[in-house]
Amino acid sequence: MTPSPSGLSEAASGLCIFSILLVPFASAGLALMNTGLSRSRNAAHTMVASLVVVGIAAGAYFVWGFSWQAYPGLPSHVVELGGRSWDWIGAERFLMRGLKLDGSPASLAAWLGMVSVGVAALVPLGAGAERWRLGACAGSTALFAGWTYPWVAHWVWGGGWLAGLGSTNGLGRGYFDAGGSGTIHAVGGVTALAVAWILGPRRGKYSLDGTPTAMPGHNGVFVLIGCLAAWIGWLGLNSAGAILFAGSDPGVVALVGVNTSLSGLSAGLASLAVTRARFGKPDASLAANGWVAGLVASSAGCPFFMPSAAVTIGAAAGALVAVTVPWFESKLYVDDPGGAVAVHGLGGLWGVMAVGLFGKFPSTAPGAKGGSGQWLAQLVGVATLVGVVLPMTYGLNWALDRFYPQRVPAEAERQGLDLYELGAGAYPEFMTHTDEFSQQ
Fold first, then answer.
1. Nearest residue to 227 via CA among 161, 195, 272, 193
2. What tens digit of pLDDT does each residue of 48-76 get?
3. Domains of the chain and CATH, by start
């Protein structure tokens, strides 16, 4: 196959471009799900916040985010520790100056990063729904897209120290995450947990004895349509990641598509089965979240899973979400209307570990069939996400909250954020709420 001037074959370059064009469907899907899982008096606010988040995330990533993410072969800052080189952060120029947007792998990675950072930034929005100020949400997104996300993306996709664990420490191929189970979704998930902790639960969510009150979303159709849109976006996200970050040939995209689809489908079915067994009837919102968790879990190793493994990975992710969403709510008192912490946080961490357990790498690669070395590399990545990224993103949002309180006042929650922050509701011809805070 004739190589193009970009460094990729013409087929790989064209397929990568087409795949990146599909990624915004993932953002649309998550926006619809977050909106549907919110109550009607916050629907317009959630959708407007989604547009703000995607726009600010792309802007911050353009201004300085990609400068710190970079791409293998581009300048970066390296620290010598213990006689080994540790690549910590990219050293590209701001505003993508000097980066030739000519279809080269680096330019395609920058474009993919610009659209995928919006997907990641939508995850905390689901956890902070119904009580997060629009201005604070914008500020938090700028910190996320300009600082938190690029650091992790460099460690994994920019030639950083996590990816180099194979060469520096002999751990298989090094930390591996082709489509972003950890880099996109777990980073978004731990940020969602930090946001939910800082904002606190919605008013009226917990009774005086700590029992959670059901606050169902207003539109299940939005949630289910969002699942289908997310499926399309994930096919593009995983395919582009396999080509750019796993060095896969264009033909592997067929395997990526099958694995992505099987993982999502099996996860949705597993969530339905678990909720039916636990509650007597299947739960539509948990099944939808389970579906997305399966897509999340498929991303890390999508080019190197067997289809049967993708079914197992997805089913485990769907069952995990069906159990942990209520557990976070009732045991840890984490009020997460969109289920973002379980879906993207736990689902992403599970997807990362699944690479070490199920990944079948080419025989020419170090750690050809996973093994303990690859498993340990993935475990180091999980430890980094939980032990480094979670405290960092919590600290950033805590500092922001000191300067600009992130939570709206009680009156705004009672009235609804549509009227309080936007001045108009999503459904002006209908009564959208009643006062349910009489006990507080």
1. 272
2. 999 999 999 999 999 999 999 999 999 99
3. 10-422 (1.10.3430.10)
